[in-house]
Specification:
The two termini are about 65 Å apart. This protein is α+β, with helices and mostly antiparallel strands and about 350 residues long. Helices cover about 55% and strands about 15% of the residues. Strands 2-1-3-7-6-5-4 form a seven-stranded mixed sheet, with helices on both faces. The radius of gyration is 35 Å and the shape is rod-shaped. It folds into two domains: about 25-155, CorA soluble domain-like (Beta Polymerase, domain 2, 2-Layer Sandwich), CATH 3.30.460.20; about 155-300 and about 330-344, Magnesium transport protein CorA, transmembrane region (Methane Monooxygenase Hydroxylase, Chain G, domain 1, Up-down Bundle).
C-alpha cells in the first residue's frame, strides 16, 4: 500500500530526503528534473520551494486529513475549479482541459479489498507544466506501483510523461487482475468439462460481476484519455504525447481482453445451465419410467384392495401370490412396451 517511509539503497540515500513531519494526508512528494528523483517534505510544499528550469513535482495526497482540504482551499496557484474537483467526491471517469492545466478522475483498483468491499477506487488528479497532484481516498495499486518505481530511481521528462507512467501502472494493475480472473475461468472451465458444476455457477457470477464493473469504467476512461494526445500546452512535448498514445492503445487492448473474457464466462454459465437441464431431464425420465412400470401394479393392487365382500379370490388359498405374480408380469410387459416404443 502507499507508505511514506522506506529503506533506500546506498546509491540513492543521499539524494532522497526523509519525509518530515506533516499531515497524515501527505503520502509522498517528489521533485524531478535534477538527476535522481528527490523526495520532498511538507515544509518544502508549504514554503513553495521553487523548482529550477525543467524541474517539476509529484504530490500524492489522501482526503482523510482535513489539513489537506485546507491546503487545497488556500492553494491559489491551482485553478479554483481544479481545487474543488480534487476535494470532491466524483466517482466516474472524466477529463477537463483548460489553458491552466488538466484535471480529471481515473478509476483504479484498491490495494486491498475483501469479499464485502468492491475493488474499484478513484484517483483525482491535476496536471500542469510544473506539477502533478493526485488525491485518493483508499490506497490504490497504480500510485503505489509508481511510487515504488520512483524510489528505485525511475525518472520522467515532464509532467505529461509522469502521467503516462501513472497510466502505465494503472494498465499493469488491471492486466494482473485480468490474468488472475483468466486463471480462475480456466479452472472453472476444466471443472465444467468434468461435470462438476455445483460451485462453478457462483464463481462465474462473481467473475462476470467484476468484469462488468471493469468494462463499465475502462471503456469511458480510455475514450476520455485519448484527448491527452491532442494537448497543445508548451509543457506537453511530443515524446510524452506519444507515450500517452501508447498507453491508451494498451488500454484499448485491455478492453478487448475484458470483453473476450466476459463472453467466455457467459458461455461457461450457459454450458452449466445446459448440463443442469440435461441432468434434470435424465432424472425426470427415470421418474417417468418408474411411474409407468408401477402403474399397472398400482391399479391392480387398488382394485383388489377394495373392501367389498365379492372381491375375487378373497377366500381362495394362494390368491395373494397369484395377484403378486400378475403385478410383476404387468410391470415386465410395460417395460417391454416402453423399449419397443424407444421411450426407454
Amino acid at each position: 500500500m502507499d507508505i511514506t517511509t522506506r529503506t533506500d539503497p546506498p546509491a540513492s540515500r543521499n539524494r532522497l530526503l526523509t519525509l518530515a513531519a506533516g499531515p497524515g494526508g501527505l503520502i509522498c512528494a517528489f521533485r524531478f528534473g535534477g538527476g535522481l528523483p528527490l523526495r520532498l517534505n511538507w515544509p518544502d510544499i508549504l514554503g513553495g520551494s521553487p523548482a529550477g528550469p525543467g524541474q517539476f513535482t509529484w504530490m500524492h495526497l489522501k482526503t482523510a486529513d482535513s489539513r489537506i482540504h485546507e491546503w487545497l482551499e488556500h492553494a491559489r496557484d491551482i485553478p479554483e475549479a481544479a481545487r474543488r474537483f480534487l476535494a470532491g467526491r466524483d466517482d466516474r471517469p472524466r477529463l477537463h482541459i483548460s489553458d491552466d492545466g488538466v484535471y480529471g478522475l481515473l478509476v483504479d483498483l484498491k490495494m486491498e479489498a475483501d469479499g464485502q468491499d468492491e475493488e474499484k477506487g478513484v484517483l483525482h488528479f491535476f496536471l500542469d507544466g510544473t506539477r502533478l497532484i493526485t488525491v485518493r481516498t483508499r490506497a490504490l495499486r497504480s500510485t503505489d506501483r509508481l511510487r515504488r518505481l520512483i524510489e528505485e530511481g525511475t525518472d520522467y521528462g515532464c509532467t505529461l510523461d509522469l502521467l503516462a507512467g501513472l497510466l502505465q501502472c494503472l494498465h499493469e494493475g488491471f492486466l494482473e487482475k485480468l490474468e488472475a480472473l483468466t486463471d480462475e475461468v480456466d479452472d472453472i472451465e476444466a471443472s465444467v468439462l468434468s461435470d462438476r458444476q455445483q460451485a462453478d455457477r457462483s464463481a462465474l457470477s462473481a467473475v462476470r460481476r467484476q468484469l462488468a464493473e471493469f468494462r463499465r469504467h475502462i471503456n469511458p476512461e480510455r475514450n476520455i484519455l485519448g484527448r491527452l494526445c491532442t494537448l497543445g500546452h508548451d509543457w506537453a512535448d511530443s515524446d510524452a504525447r506519444d507515450r500517452v498514445a501508447q498507453v491508451i492503445d494498451a488500454l484499448h487492448g485491455l478492453a478487448g481482453t475484458i470483453d473476450a473474457l466476459y463472453e467466455r464466462a457467459k458461455l461457461l454459465q450457459e454450458e452449466i445451465a445446459s448440463q443442469m437441464a440435461e441432468q434434470m431431464n435424465r432424472n425426470l425420465m427415470v421418474l417417468s419410467v418408474l411411474t409407468a412400470l408401477l402403474m399397472p401394479g398400482t391399479l391392480l393392487s387398488g382394485i383388489f384392495g377394495m373392501n367389498m365382500a365379492d372381491v375375487p379370490g378373497l377366500q381362495a388359498p394362494g390368491a395373494f401370490w397369484w395377484v403378486l405374480s400378475l403385478m410383476g408380469l404387468l410391470g415386465l410387459g410395460m417395460l417391454l412396451l416402453l423399449r419397443k416404443l424407444k421411450l426407454f
